[in-house]
Amino acid sequence: MTEKLLSLANLDPWLARLRERGSVYAPGTDQAGEVALREWPQPEPLVLDYKNFREPPKAFFLPRNQTLLYFRDGKTVELNSAVPETFLFGIRPCDARALALLDRVFLDGDQNDPYYARLREKTTVIALACAQAMPSCFCASVGSGPGDGSGADLLAVALESGLLFRAGSGKGEGLLAEAADLLAEATPAAKREAAERIQGVTAQLTPVPTADSALRLRGSYDSPLWGTAGQKCLGCGTCSFLCPTCHCFDITDEPDRRVRTWDCCAYPQFTLHASGHNPRPTPKERWRQRLMHKFRYAVENFGVPFCAGCGRCIRNCPVSMDLRTVLKELGA
Amino acid sequence: MAESRQLEAQLRETAEKLLREKNVSLFVGYEKASLPFRTTPLLLTKTEEAPRLVWNPFCNANLSVYLPRLFLAPADARAAKAAPAPPRVGVVLKGCDSRAVAVLLQEKQVRRENLVLVGIHCPGIVDRRKAEKALGEHQALGAGEDGGGNIRVVVEDGTESTLRREDVLADACLECRSPAPALHDILLGAPGEAARTGTARPGTARTRTAEFESRPLEARWAGFQEVIARCIRCNACRQACPLCYCKTCIFEQNRPRWIGPGTDPSDLALYHLIRAFHLAGRCTECGACERACPMGIDVRLLARKLSAEVEDLYGYRPGESVEATPVLSSFALDDPQDFVTEP
Amino acid sequence: MPSEWEPRILAFLCNWCSYAGADLAGVSRIQYPPNLRIIRVPCSGRINPFFLLRGLQNGADGVLVSGCHPGDCHYISGNLAARRKFALLKELMKYAGLEPERVQFTWVSASEGGRFAAIAEKVIGQIRKLGPNKKLVKSHG
After folding, report:
1. Pairing state of beta strands C36-41 and C9-14?
2. Residue in chain C lying closest to A70 (CA)
3. What residues form DSSP beta bridges with B43?
């Protein structure tokens, strides 16, 4: 695993070099005054000390509105698969880890998803370790952490004087090799500073008892707590749509094309059968499904909870439901 | 504010009494949430849980959203036999929320005889996004109200800071014209609190609408597109709205499918136009949709215009009277028709 | 757009007055441009404003709705209820930046064949001047 130092003065030249190969997206302030991944360069300077983006970067890999096929002249013509080279700089470790989780669904199974695979292959992910935790963050409780590099090609840690890069994949190693003239060797002091910074953020996190979730949730299918949660849930789908690991989709046919869009288990129609029967008829069953999928079924199928601990569902729920509270109550 | 504390105590007492005397079997209020600047709905059934109820400037959800689903008609005769009797429900309502209940009553979605409406004179509530933005890089660990009605915040390093109330009040509250619950069985608090703290700016909605309207046609279209561009079609605005109670929404019907479920620009525009139009003459301007939007979109852009039109053309304000015929279910022979081609 | 572009306009006509009015224009051999695609509906009150938006999304360049004159509705008041909906819809569309001429409402009775042809000509002319609908139409292909 290669580690290199990039001085802050060299950051822009490095991004400019990536820009020659494809689109670069980096953290900047959007029209609403929020920090988001924006096409680089922008007139406004890069932001490095943001907490996290409002949206996870999953739309880069699972577009909200993705044309799969065009129907032409009565024949099915596959979509032109040209995908531009893209670099994402500055996504937070939880969101990068979410990509590693999505890979298990879309790449590691018996059936690879070519659309996802293409976008994943052509997109280089450069994660940036967190400088600050939010009260809604719980990445360390789901096997990740503010310095987790899984899912990223490169992990950067912002230090006083620059960025410490750690390669996480062959692609990342390649990037570091290409930029050798801009980089310096990582000194032990820099490595120590990086470790301390990450430790500092980890210490800000409040642990959530989820490690043994699969085991515990197995016995709680009929818990009355699901009813309590279901009574409050509005079924709006915000939690899923902003979740970096939620990946359910719907496919609809337009007159001339087949389109894939996001879908969500909080909606009644998600499980509605053609007969009119709905196996998850009320918010109670739907809410249970979402939590069970993430913390029990995923653990049983993949060995890890399908949650990156980013806390977006908690921050954005219109009725402020908190899955950490429910997990705790179920464990009690 | 001391007043909030006092109101909170009265509210708990009221709920406890209603439950104890079996006037209601369910009481819907707010409780503390896990993050600052928020509360979460509390559906109470036990008297001993009444102390969990809170009343503060973070009580943002419109609780009437929970009512229609409690009174859903059984699907058929067999279901009707098995269905339990509809509950008697107590519910905490701000001014705008009580108008929403009035519309639900007008539209026969809830049963008046099963409701105990606990109205609270509303001093306006905080938009958590504004509060979070006002703190900049700081992070709130806790928040409350100070003696002057401003918002006191404890940030990550333990220091305290104060946010001015008018800087963080929700847009709908800044635009609010009737903070007092018109419809209620029990009324808590005193009127005029909003006016006293100097935050009521009832003309704001009109001013915003007039500003948008003064732009040329193409600029309005560009402005509308810019507002909805961030929409992810998650449905939070629809679900947070107490008046979007249709069992199957037009956006979900798929035989035929009316509009695509994705974010195609044409589908986005239709979603927002139709959602606004379905609420024409019904929207009580509570702003729950706007606060629910995870993308921070001004989802009331079109609704504000329609409210103004309904009032100007037909002199109607939704939710002011349960007895009135809904504005789009009625007509007058001399309704304006300048819009008609060659009338 | 190529010069041979012709506006395609959806016309929702009520069964009792306007459809008969259009029919009369036909049997009286009154000429008007052939750009209307007529859909007969029971009453202008039956028209959900969504039909009009959906028509524009599906490629119509404009929509014309016509019902009985106020007071003459076969169902007594369908057109009066419709009038409120359409007034608001038109305001809403204008506000959102859509050309108000794209969606038009009018009243034509069963005896007004000439009036129907004149209005059709006027509406078609206005929409022809606006050019193709690009704002709400869903791009196909």
Report:
1. parallel
2. C141
3. B28
User: Which chain B residues contact residue C91 at CB under 8 A?
Assistant: 305-306, 309, 339
Contacts of C100 in chain B (CB under 8 A): 339
Number of domains in chain C: 1
C34 burial type by CB count under 10 A (0-12 exposed, 13-18 middle, 19+ buried)? exposed
Return the residue of C nearest to A71 by Cα: C141
**Per-domain residue ranges for chain B?**
2-329
Residues of C in contact with A257 (CB under 8 A): 140
pLDDT reported for residue B196: 47
Q: Which of B217, B264, B306 sits opposite C92 (nearest CB)?
A: B306
- Provide the 3-class DSSP secondary structure of residue B266: helix
Asked whether residue B194 carries a pLDDT value surpassing 80, the answer given is no
Averaged pLDDT of chain B: 92
At residue A267, the 3 state secondary structure works out as coil
Bridge partners (DSSP) of residue A257 are: A70, A254
Return the half-sphere exposure (C-beta side, CA atoms, 13 A cut-off) of residue A165.
30
Query: In this complex, do C96 and B212 lie within 8 Å of one another by their Cβ atoms?
Result: no
Task: For residue C135, tell me if it sits in a domain.
Answer: no
**pLDDT for A112-128, tens place per residue?**
999 999 999 999 999 99
Domain for residue C44, yes or no? Answer: yes
CATH code of the domain covering residue C56? 3.40.50
Instruction: Please report how many Cα atoms fall inside a 13 Å half-sphere around the Cα of residue C11, on the Cβ side.
Output: 26
Q: What is the pLDDT of residues B40-90, one digit of tens each?
A: 999 999 999 999 999 999 999 999 999 999 988 777 788 888 888 889 999
- Residue C40 is assigned to a structural domain of this protein: yes
The lowest-confidence range among A72-76, A264-268, B77-81, B139-143 is A72-76
Measured distance CA(A202)–CA(A139) in Å, rounded: 9
